[in-house]
Design a protein that fits this description.
The structure holds two protein chains of two kinds. By secondary structure, chain A is mostly helical. Chain A has seven helices and two strands; from the N terminus they run ββααααααα. The chains are: A mainly alpha, B alpha+beta.
Amino acid sequence: MVGQAAEPQLRVAGKLRHDKGLRVSNGDETDWAGLMIRVRDHQDRAAFAALFRHFAPRVKGFLMKSGAGATLAEECAQDVMATLWQKAHLFDPARASVATWVFTIARNRRIDALRKARRAEPEELDWGPEPEPDQAEVMETQQETERLGRALAGLPERQRSLIERAFYGELSHSEIAAETGLPLGTIKSRIRLALDKLRHEMM
Amino acid sequence: MTIRHHLSDQLLIGYAAGQLPEAFSLVVATHVSLCDECRARLASYDTLGGALIEDQGDVEMAEAALEAVMARIEGMPQATQRAPMRASGIFPAPLADYVGGDLSAVKWRSIGMGVKQAILPTGRDASARLLYIPAGVAVPDHGHRGMELTLVLQGAFADANDRFDRGDLEIADENLEHTPVAMAGQDCICLAATDAPLRFRKFLPRLAQPLFRI
């Protein structure tokens, strides 16, 4: 199955990407969503390994900045990656980038490991069968995370540090600033439109 | 149904970051289940978390980490089906999960004037409870310490400033003193969470508070 999996039905930048030997890195334009879809649809282990090499060290870094020791962070990062495999069927490239999806898994693992608390999750929406997600939407979603990362890097140091500390769990909920100074409105609007469309179809 | 009173950015960021007390997370998850606007706002903050992961400095994994995880997933079947949580009554799924069912499963305790409450099992850094206020009855005049969230699930309540219907969330802090009244017509049921005990002005002497855990 490795390397021979069916081509992901995912167009990136208007052309179908061919993953030769799974070296899919084209500068900083690696098609993480395409790899994730191969894991999801074909249990592709080579694609999983590529995702692991990119994301596991980042998750470990995130957890250590959140106060986990190296051993616990290593263990939890491995858990997060195993969950990525196990819950691959929940990945929807039109709704979230791989990085965002990894973040939500890592965050929940952190709540378990460090706070030992339970976290209620919103009711899941039934998006229905969607064999061919809208490709423009998929691309937009995957690029949003990158654009947001650039905007984050462009923030004044003090403001960026406040956001990072909030996400590393260094701030209590009452200390978190309500204003991020980031262009989150376009992301919200896109998702709101998708939700409106879904509600309309459900009626 | 149009929801007019929403979650604050502060609460949404706190929830996305995983930093809210459990009782507040329950209120946020319940409101988001009813409110597409806040669901979309929350997704934008999750995306911010994604951007932070992407920009994260690498910390090298243990040498055999990939092999270890590969061996783990070897015997691990991928789940193939979504099991969407779906609530059919007045409690959205996350709340029904805490209650162990819908309205009929709630173990109410009377606290006077026909008002009833049920404490929900959450972590101790904040408390959550369901409140049942008969139509037309006033919730006792109270001020707040800390933060109190009140989410309407059935009926409506109003105070001097505003009206709150199903799905609406009132966020109160120590600056707010008010006398909410359940609107006539239907008994009002709310999910309330606070990170400090309430101070009641009337009808519940302060001393009784530890008894009722409010």
